[in-house]
Amino acid sequence: MSEKTTIYDIAKELNISAATVSRALNNNPKISESTIKLVMDTAAKMNYKQNRLALALRSGKSGNIGVIVPRINTNFFGSVIRGIEEELHPNKYNVIICQTHEDESREIENINTLLDAQVDGIMISITNESKKNEKIIHRVLEKNVPLIFFDRKKNIDGVSSITIDDFKAGYIATKHLIDQGCKKIAHLCGDQSLEIYENRFKGYQKALLDNGITFDETYVIQSKSNIEDGISVTNKLLQLKTPPDAIFSASDFAALGAIQELKAQGIQIPKDFCVVGFGNEPFTKFMELSISTIDQSPLEMGKMTAKVFLEQMNNTEDFKMEKKIVLNPILHIRKSSSRQNL
Amino acid sequence: MSEKTTIYDIAKELNISAATVSRALNNNPKISESTIKLVMDTAAKMNYKQNRLALALRSGKSGNIGVIVPRINTNFFGSVIRGIEEELHPNKYNVIICQTHEDESREIENINTLLDAQVDGIMISITNESKKNEKIIHRVLEKNVPLIFFDRKKNIDGVSSITIDDFKAGYIATKHLIDQGCKKIAHLCGDQSLEIYENRFKGYQKALLDNGITFDETYVIQSKSNIEDGISVTNKLLQLKTPPDAIFSASDFAALGAIQELKAQGIQIPKDFCVVGFGNEPFTKFMELSISTIDQSPLEMGKMTAKVFLEQMNNTEDFKMEKKIVLNPILHIRKSSSRQNL
DNA sequence: TACGTTTGTGTAATCGATTGCATGATTTGA
DNA sequence: TCAAATCATGCAATCGATTACACAAACGTA
């Protein structure tokens, strides 16, 4: 049962005031060298640890940062959080994680919890673009709690964000399929109320346009980010009068489902049909028929997010800083769309 | 720029003392119904939020729980954390995540960080069994900070733990291979200084013994939990005078490497060779040749860990509570070891 | 009426660290 | 040698909520 030593204990021990102890511990130049040394030594001897709660109350800073994600147990978000963590820990910030499970009311709850917990900042990847959570976001801003979006953002003035260039990602993925000789490229798109999915779709359209392929909206079909949906949606595509000869999926999971369905129908990949996914989930690489996909550099994204936060915290200027960082997507070409060796 | 309202603001507004406000907000029976209602209403009107930092200082409880894992971006740990989170959030605890990257000194750092941050408890899956971190663990206990192990534990009196029955897991995995007709079963084992890997190995041995198969130590070979090591280790096994006809790997990643190497050597799975992995990583299910594996119920493990913590927090009795919970491993039989359809 | 109880509130201390202001001691400069 | 400047330190308030103790008012009872 080790009693905690406080600055008062040290003060009593040395017959000086707590104020002097506090100043000495903070290397205040007003305190004489000898006193500082004495206090430091005594503090070490008495195994003194600063009480961060007391500091938090006085300064109004908890030293905690809230991170809100749809879910934590996917490679993408797990890696982003890892990046955030690695950047913030050396700066004495702790990371508090919340999950929304793609549920808006849960998102609101989480933000309130974090505000209650007096976090020094919030980093969030929002669930979707609906108006419902607009209000709570503004409450965060009103409270002057630094807010940063990553990956799934809202466009709000004065709020920084770290995303990847989803338009470009959609573009290069589609362009790659065109380069492989595909002419009828379908797109499994995500919830269009989210900017990321909208941009992937637009990139896809632009690539078609730039390469003289007419856009056909029957080739665009929304799919959830899971295998089952990928299967059923692909099945529908294959029943079209003129079925597609390639799929660009906005999700790796849906792409995997698509591949399973294609195989089930005896279609040869990549000979007769090419597939590109999105996210570079670990399994895309491990599959026997490895899946081409877009890497989103999640680790990097996490680190950038944390860095931008730290910059804003250290920004003592009077003006608000807004940074919109857009990372470069990287296309990994794998077996599911490589025809050069055939 | 919304100024925060405190109980003093409410007190001033109503011309009563802050003490009364505090008591009213906490539904103290000493306060008259009418006052409580008045205070509650005014608090709501003034948008009062309790300052958790002040509460934290006074009570000595931060409301934060530290969770230490080797890494966060794997399915297993991600899911455990998710489980912990889901159980603790409704109880007003926040979860602070730390990663050790399998580095002992990092582990010590993390524990110190958490103690500094005045967490109300620590849940940890340790990096390994070496003596170096023994000291810091005891410091946690001395400080009376509740400590709980999950998955990778140390055996310390009075400390609760939630694990799976790794011995049984090793046993049923091996028994399954024997049932498939395999006679020369190799084991890719993990770091034997970790109890979990030691127990998987022991279960493997016992299953062999119980089924009249002589244990052959040349069939046991240590492998790191990654594909590359799985490949190289399997290559070595195949060069033996009498190569094995099955592998029970203590890691899914090594199992995947093993399968890749087996295929590369033209060996038919499961006809000529069976493989069972460990962990039920998502990819094991997605592979075209899906991999048999042991599920560790990580979500359940996380939830149990949190529950045990909450129980200990609510335990007002004078005695210490120690719970050693052992979850049941579940064998998922998939293509890599299913001979019944051949 | 007088006295003991109950009820509802207020006063002030507490948690631990920080910091503006005051003060006493020492040094500097003329 | 004395005023001014510098230096080192102490005092006390502060952050916001809780709570032991005190106390006044209201009530009940003999």
Automatic annotation (TrEMBL), chains A, B:
InterPro entries, A to Z: HTH_LacI, Lambda_DNA-bd_dom_sf, Peripla_BP/Lac1_sug-bd_dom, Peripla_BP_I
A Pfam cross-reference name: LacI
Keyword Signal in annotation: no
GO MF annotation, one: transcription cis-regulatory region binding
Domain HTH lacI-type: start-end pairs: 5-59
SMART domains: HTH_LACI
Keywords, in A-Z order: DNA-binding, Transcription, Transcription regulation
Protein name: LacI family transcriptional regulator
